[in-house]
Design a protein that fits this description.
Blueprint lengths: L2 H6 L2 E3 L8 H10 L4 E8 H5 L16 E6 L3 H13 L4 E6 L4 H5 L10 H14 L3 E10 L4 H15 L3 E9 L6 H4 L7 H10 L4 E5 L5 H10 L3 E4 L1 H5 L1 H5 L2 H4 L9 H7 L1 H9 L5 H4 L12 H13 L5 H23 L1
Parallel strand pairs: 1-2, 1-8, 2-3, 3-4, 4-5, 5-6, 6-7, 7-8
Length: about 350
């Protein structure tokens, strides 16, 4: 087991398609130096057959960061794992939890929980392909499976391959009849079952995912005996509220600087991005929630949205917004003192 990524997985931010790209991860890393970050899911065929190696790019400052792969062909996943390791990823995670129609049509994601022999072959190829740690993210079950029966069997198979770390989304995935969005909310959470799996498989490093919407909730799962907690959309929508205290409260490190300081620290990164001819919105679209719950949050979101829709928005526009926020924050401080 890779000690660095295993330690970081005590608190992780979930892989989220269209959200956790390299710009999002750089932004999140400014708030927590120690939490484990994940890429969006990258399909093995895109890397092996399509040659889309740009999907593996990341900034060294993002570490510790893990690559999540999707696929069902063992040889392709082995080759994709080797490519990921060569790009510097210390963890390669296999997606066995996504319920979307597109993923199902490619015969990977949550549907693979019904094909343990295929999963075994995939994991064995991945483990042979590199020294990077191979991990799994799965559901407690799919469709009409009796999770209390099939999940222990599935974890036993995973453990037998040599995989030592698993993240379990504590809901079933319903492959027919529910959309991906509904699969995040409608199937009931079964936290006790995940905790039972930790007791049944003490040698596995188990993290819990699903409905973990605050740092306090994550800490409750850790206190209950689980090895890690993974936060998804809440960490994206309220990044400062959750990530700013992760290092202090979970890893016994230092708390992050203020949200205003984080916004300031993004300037060199934004400047370098714009100098490459890219758009401001590609970065700032991930920053809407920076001031969530704080004075001026609505102004920040509205103005970022305006800049995103404005052709040619630049660093000067971003600096103007940051100065506007500082005026708002100073006025609020004066009111509180007065």
């Amino acid at each position: 087991m890779n000690t660095a990524v295993s330690s970081a997985s005590r608190l992780s931010v979930a892989p989220m398609m269209a959200w956790t790209d390299r710009h999002c991860r750089y932004f999140h890393r400014l708030m927590s130096k120690q939490a484990l970050l994940y890429t969006e899911m990258v399909t093995a065929p895109a890397l092996v057959l399509g040659g889309a190696l740009r999907l593996l790019d990341f900034n060294p400052e993002e570490q510790p960061v893990a690559l999540q792969l999707g696929g069902s062909d063992p040889k392709q996943l082995g080759r994709a794992t080797a490519l990921g390791a060569a790009h510097g990823y210390d963890e390669i995670n296999l997606n066995l939890g996504c319920p979307s129609d597109r993923v199902q049509s490619g015969s990977f994601g949550a549907v693979l929980m019904t094909e343990p022999d295929v999963v075994r072959a995939c994991l064995e190829q991945m483990l042979q392909a590199s020294d990077s740690e191979v991990t799994v993210k799965c559901r407690i079950g799919v469709d009409d499976q009796i999770a209390q029966e099939t999940l222990p069997e599935f974890l036993s198979m995973v453990q037998s391959t040599g995989v030592k770390r698993v993240t379990i989304h504590a809901r079933k995935a319903w492959l027919k009849g529910l959309s991906p969005k509904e699969n995040r909310d409608i199937p009931p959470l079964n936290y006790p079952l995940v905790l039972q799996m930790k007791l049944a498989f003490p040698g596995l490093h188990l993290s819990i995912n699903g409905g973990v919407n605050s740092l306090a909730a994550a800490q409750e799962h850790l206190s209950a005996g689980l090895d890690g907690a993974m936060i998804g959309r809440a960490a994206y929508q309220n990044p400062y509220d959750i990530l700013a205290r992760v290092d202090c409260d979970v890893f016994e490190g230092d708390a992050a600087p203020s949200a205003d300081d984080i916004a300031e620290q993004m300037i060199p990164y934004i400047e370098a991005h714009l100098q490459q001819g890219e758009r401001l919105h590609q970065i700032t679209r991930h920053m809407f929630g920076l001031f969530a719950g704080q004075t001026g949050a609505r102004h920040w979101r509205r103005r970022l949205s305006e800049l995103g829709g404005k052709h040619g928005s630049n660093l000067a526009d971003y600096r103007i917004l940051l100065n506007e926020m500082r005026v708002i924050l100073e006025q609020q401080q004066e009111l509180e003192v007065g």
